[in-house]
Amino acid sequence: MSAQNVIAARVADIAQRTPWRTRGRVAVWIAGALLAALIVAVTMLLAKGTGIWGLDRPVMWGLAIANYVWWIGMGMAGTFISAALLLLRQDWRASVNRFAEAMTVFAVSVSGLFPIFHLGRPWFFYWVAPYPNAMGTWPQWRSSLTWDFFAISAYLIVSIVYWYIGMLPDLATLRDAATTQRQRYFYGFLALGWRGASTQWRAHASAARLLAGLAVPLVFSVHTMVALDFSQGIVAGWHSSLFGPFFVGGALFSGFAMTLVLAIVLRRAFALDRLITDTDLDRLAKLLLAVGIFVAYCYAVELLIPFYSGDAQEIAATTARFDGPFAWLYWLTLICNVVVPQALWSPTVRRNRGALLVIGTTVVVGMWLERFMLIVTSLYRSYLPSVEGRYWPTVWDWLLLIGSIGLFIAMFLLFVRLLPVVSVYELRKRREQTA
Amino acid sequence: MPSLTDAAIESRRDFLKALALSVGGSALVGCARAPDDPIIPSVADRAGEDLPMFYATALTRNGYANGVLVKTRYGHPIKIEGNPSHPASLGGTDIFSQANIFSLWSDERSKSVLRRGSLSSWPTFGEELAARLATSRNGSGVRILAEPSTSPTLQRLKKNFLARFPAAAWHTYQSLSRDNVYAGAKLAFGEALETRYDFTRCDVMVALDADFLTTLPGSVRYAHDFATRRTHSAPTRVYSLETSPNAVSILADHRRALRPNEIHSFAAALLDSLDNKATDSPFAKWRDAIVADLSNARGRSIVVCADHAPPELHAVVHTINAKLGNLGATIFLAEPLLDETDQLSSLRTLTDEMRAGNVETLLVIGGDPAYTAPADFAFAGALDRVAWSAHLATENDETSLHCDWHLPLSQELEAWGDARAFDGTASVQQPTIAPLHDSKSGIEWLAMALGESTTGHDLVRETWRSLSDDVWKNALRDGVVANSSAPSRQATLRTFDIKPPSTSATDTLDFVFRADPTVGDGAHAGNAWLQELPKPFTQLTWSNAALLGPETAKRLGIVDEDVIRLVANGVSVEAPVIVQDGHAEQCVTLPLGYGRTRAGGSASGIGFDAGALRVAERFWQTRGTVQKTGFVRPLARTQRHAVVGKDSPVRVVAGDAAIAPNETQPSLFAPRASTTGYAWGMAINLDACIGCNTCTIACQSENNISSVGRDQVRRGRAMHWIRIDHYVEPAAQPRLHAQPVPCMHCEDAPCELVCPVGATVHDSEGLNLQVYNRCVGTRFCSNNCPYKVRRFNFLQFSTEASRDSQNPDVTVRNRGVMEKCTYCIQRIETARIETDRDGRKLRDGEVLTACQAACPTSAIVFGDINDPSSAVSRAKADTRNYALLGELNTRPRTTYLAKRRNARTELDE
Amino acid sequence: MSQIFGRHFDLVFRVALIGSIALVAGLIVIWRIAIAPAIGAPVEQPVPFSHKHHVGDVGLDCRYCHSTVDSSAYAGMPASEVCMNCHSQLFTTSSLLAPVRDSVRDGKPLHWNRVYRLPDFVYFNHSIHVNNGVDCANCHGDVARMPLTWQASSLEMRWCLDCHRHPQAAVSVAANATTKPTLREAAQLTECSTCHR
Asked: Which residues of C23-52 are buried (b: 16+ CB within 10 A; e: fewer)?
């Protein structure tokens, strides 16, 4: 049986036939438990108010916002990998783009929860949107938060469409490979009547390119927007023109790290060695290293700016990061995001899946710490000596974080259970070209 | 101000019942749906019932009257203002008068008559009392224990009572007694006398541990006079020698921390060198400087010591003032105003009799002696030996626990009465609402004991029988009985031998007992506003703490929040510590009024009971040892960091020097076109601010600001719209600064830029508005506020319970909403609507913000900065005017006038 | 392999797609209507008071009952005694007026049901509107035709703003007016602080 059919069969197996054994079940149970935690946390939050968190004056933002930036950051890689690499004709992307895109969609959806739930009155979140209303009022267009609303929603919609369109041919494949009537209906419905006709292929190709062209600038806009949520403030430690590229870089960094982690896990879980090859992982690792260096550069510039500007408040804020009550946070961030990734220079490390898994995870954690550090160390002190606060998350902050992780895992498990985890038709193309 | 007759009260009671629960309440943001409750008009035709009414009355503090105007809406007293025509107020108030509104409506007040803990009634009590008085022929075994009072009506009834029951006796006790003042006068002049001061003619002040700005009777007036003199005439000089920082320290040109004994001997040294008896003293340099200044200001100076100073010190101070020719010039003597000049022995006599079992019937009027009496009296124990006892009090407290009867005492805003101010001026207290609960006032109770069934009104009117109805009406309208002040009188100085204070052993520390800045001796413990009011310098709320000097703390290895064991007079108490810059070394300050067991829900069991260490012999000061326990007790403080360097937000200039203006920063914004209408602005004169917190609590009362409780304060969630930042400027003798910080109403406000829903916006008159009902709570505005004056409702802080005391003109904020100082926009709008109606322009001073109106030193000025003649424009034109964090280019409408320091250079070395 | 979805399904699919969107929109509309104030619906009252009779037929001035309308924020609801000014003479036996008589006899106030509901965070002031020549009818409609009173205007913020943006349109100054109304600029009248504090 020819290579492409093997691929098709394998992917179809994952989605349709392979029954989940203990490991799969455990994963589901874990996801379920974390999901329950999320529900408890949110219910409590809506019942009592944001006061259940560790927030105070002056630290009015905390974990919720850190989580938001973290998730939306990870929601970057997928679109970037598939879209940008598609435009650059990097066909090795075929092996990773599908689940990377899925990861994007899920991560962005999860991130969208936080800006809403961190509101004092979440039930009025829609006031940020411009719509005809009985109050005769409009949003405040100078505020970055208003634009953030558009950035997130636009990015989410485009990512979903791009992901779905890309999946159509494979959904059709699954439909044809379906064994039971229920599956046939399910995939048939999702395949939107894809028959693989040459007209459809042509339309599909151009649609893909179009959306890719649309998605790539969005990737940058959404994270620049997130950066503006901070740099628009005059808070010492936030008020910097560096934040745009800094956040885009950071997002790519965490995104690639997450992709790497998922790739290794999937490959292990479903024995996809022939689909996600060592070379693919190696390429991902190189990408990760490259972005890592850029992020390290940003850290350096972030130090340069205050001292170069000579602004007393900025300098004070920066030095407070070195030796203030939250110094450990700063140094830990540097270790995770700057020191550890340097190991990727060595080819042996890049070919060692275990090492890659560890490094990837470290970066993902490190990027979360970075967001937390940026928010808290900038806010806990202010221009007046009299204003100084401490912030430490309560159990409710943490529950919301792990709950959101649960939501992500749950969605991802559903994805691998029901949908094609790798792009069959693109791998086929790739094999044909290589053959 | 409409006056008030008894009839009016009766009708206002049902008026209240009709309205209290309908239109009288305040708004609640977030209930998006409009209210659906019925409209309930009154039965009797009464026009304009929703318009605010002001009633002139007086509130007493330790027996002395402070004149106030009580603002009522729908029959609810909701706000206290100063009474400009009352000598003790001149428009200013203090935190205790402001907090009265909370005490009145407090849910923790006792509401019903209790007989041994079980529900009873006034008639039952009446019968039992009458029976006992009848059986006790001519009142043998009958005793009354009351707090010291200046009330003529109480005096009259007291006389009647003792006439009717000659064998009965009347005792008086209050733990913040003025005994030493009278004893000191006895030493110096051979008779007990009141002392009162005139700061309007005083250029040199020497305060010997004496906070004459916030603690003396008449201190509100003193603060006013002090500030007026300081602001409007020749540079004055203030010396403060103190054990722990107080209001005077903030504006003192020179302050120095000394132990109580050192202060005593310093005074002696002063006297000596005035007599040209040059003794050598460790403080020679300071002594000589002060003597020099004093002798240059004969008849224009005041040396003052605190009520709690030992009698000898009082006598010494009298002598000094006499030598300086201040008596009759800046200091005046008068007959005692309080009805008891030696309360401690009065209470001792009573306690001994009680323990001996000679007391069969004891009536306690107000107070809480079981908690406040000296520990060695074991008053509570003695109380149990009394056959039949009754306690009339606002709370079912420690004393009530040991009495057979607890009877609810009317709050001062509910009852008729009268009282004299520090200068003897009499005021009639008129109720502003019918008693909320089944309570009686002290005089009504006495009348009851005398078998009279007259109303409070008639009792007081009877006392002032001499006044014609017109004069009486005027007295009610103005809040003062015309020319009733006590004449000052001469007294000849006697010679007395000055006992040099014994020097203290090194192994022990001085323990000094002081009234707590916000809860006094515990009388205000039940008041959440006062509990949550950050105490000056320590910024501590909801607790007291032992204050230590930095050196002493270092020697003992103690830091903030450590718990220490204090041992004195054979008793030991455990207390958390605050290390206080500028506090005397080898000396511990122990604020009274905490560690109460029955102060009502939120106030019971917080802090420690310093009173347990207090014995009659060493009433204000004792010796003891301190050990570290190793335990830590977290304290709820509103400010963590106080030490400042050159970049201090509080700017100080030497003498009348001008201040370096903020250099104008380049801005991307186009210069704003100047407006023609009103432009509201505020100027805060740091050279007049004494950090007394009155603005903070006045604002809380005016703007329906919630108390959040100890835990929330610890989390940094206190809600006060105007806070007072305290700073310490390191020096040999640290300099202390206070700075009130309300919203700055920046013209280029960072908060407005970042709100996604436009809930905080600018209006054409320069107000930075906060629209609660539009706010969704992103909190970006607070992050972006460089002054951090915004407050967020993290939880549902406002409660239905506080509804009755709230200002219906101000929206009550629900959880999830940001709030902040609005320059009292409700007052601006009300005034604007009035003037728009009669088509005229607002006059300067027609709109006063709550903080401005309450400030005893007029440190806060508010008004239209487009009007060059307005007070605020003139203030901002001052060469000391500066903007806080001006370098940020936020162009704040609230600016500050730098502090002036008129220093003697040789003392700074 | 047999096709599971025929050609016709394309149509079904599109209709379903559009339908679901329409459904959501429809639900929102229904919800808005449900919470909108009931304009034009007469409100039951303990006493069936008729503005039509008192204003239309008798010709009473609004201020006879709503006596503080030009001096205070609240128009003022008549005290029971005010009703009795006339009804101690007229219809003294009418059972409809029993509640008023009882109210005065027992000193128990009447409980009128609200016709106009304003959220508590809105500070509306009758006096400034009346004194600046805004006719009662502008907001309350022609009460002279209302046997039982009903709400004549929505009181939505949008509705308030319509007037505040073009104040002159709503203002009618009587020829014999003693003081000319001093109107703030429209720009000022539309500032949040005008109504929210």
From this structure: eeeeeeeeeeeeeeeeeeeeeebeeebbbb
pTM: 0.92
For residue B820, the chain A residues in CB contact (below 8 A) are none
Q: A129-141 pLDDT, tens per residue? A: 998 888 888 999 9
Which pairs count as long-range contacts for B158-162, CB under 8 Å and 24+ apart, including other chains? B158/B339, B158/B446, B160/B450, B161/B446, B161/B449, B161/B450
Residues 6+ apart with CB under 8 A from B291: B270, B273, B274
Distance between B699 CA and the closest CA of chain C, angstroms: 15
- Written as one letter, the residue type at A174 is L
Q: Are B424 and B476 in contact (CB under 8 A)?
A: no
- Residue of chain C whose Cα is closest to the Cα of A175: C4
Contacts 24+ apart (CB under 8 A), B839-844: B839/C179, B839/C180, B839/C181, B839/C182, B842/B678, B844/B869, B844/B870, B844/B871
Q: Which of B738, B740, B535, B512 is nearest to B635 (CA)?
A: B535
Give the pair of three-digit tokens for residue A92: 């090795």
Contact: B37, C114; criterion CB under 8 Å: yes
Q: Could you give the angle at the alpha carbon of B640 between the alpha carbons of B639 and B641, nearest 5°?
A: 105
Taking each helix axis from N to C end, the angle separating A63-74 and A395-418, rounded to the nearest 10 degrees, works out to 20
Q: Give residue B475's identity as a one-letter amino acid code.
A: A
With CB atoms and an 8 Å threshold, state whether B817 touches A121.
yes
The answer, for A435 touching chain B at a CB cutoff of 8 Å, is no
pLDDT of B6 above 90:
no
Which of B24-38, B276-290, C86-100 has the highest average model confidence (pLDDT)? Answer: C86-100
List chains touching A (3+ CB pairs under 8 A).
B, C
pLDDT in tens, C25-69: 999 889 888 887 788 889 999 999 999 999 999 999 999 999 889
Local structure of B511: helix, strand or coil: strand
- Chain C CB contacts of B771 under 8 Å are 192, 196
Contacting subunits of B (3+ beta carbon pairs below 8 A): A, C
CA atoms within a 13 Å half-sphere pointing along the CA-CB vector of B701 = 35
Task: Note whether B757 contacts A385, CB cutoff 8 Å.
Answer: no
* Residue in the structure block whose two tokens are 């040099």: B500
Tell me the percentage of chain A whose pLDDT exceeds 90. Answer: 63
Alpha-carbon distance A113 to nearest alpha carbon in chain B (angstroms): 14
Q: Do C158 and A185 touch (CB under 8 A)?
A: no
Q: Supply angle C-alpha B144, B148, B154, rounded to 5.
A: 65
Q: Which of A169-173, A431-435, B741-745 has the highest mean pLDDT?
A: B741-745
Half-sphere exposure of C16 (CA within 13 A, CB side): 7
ipTM value, please give it: 0.93
pLDDT grade for A176, boundaries at 50, 70 and 90:
confident
> What CA–CA distance (Å, rounded) separates A44 from B720?
27
Which residues partner with B327 through β-bridges?
B331
Whole-angstrom distance, CA of residue B494 vs CA of residue B233: 35
Across the interface, do A139 and B640 touch by the CB < 8 Å criterion?
no
* Disruptive mutation site among C68, C110, C121 for chain B (greatest number of B CBs within 10 Å): C121
- Which residues of chain A lie closer than 8 angstroms to C1, CB-CB? 176
For residues B827-838, b (16+ Cβ closer than 10 Å) or e, as one string?
bbbbebbebbbe
Q: B537-559: b or e for each residue (b if 16 or more CB lie within 10 Å)?
A: bbbbbbbbbbbbbeebbeebebe
User: CA-nearest residue of chain B to C73?
Assistant: B50
**Is residue A79 scored above 90 in pLDDT?**
no
* B18 band by pLDDT with thresholds 50, 70 and 90: very low
Q: Which helix (H) or strand (E) holds A181?
A: helix A181-190
Rounded distance between C-alpha atoms, residue A300 and residue B66, angstroms = 63
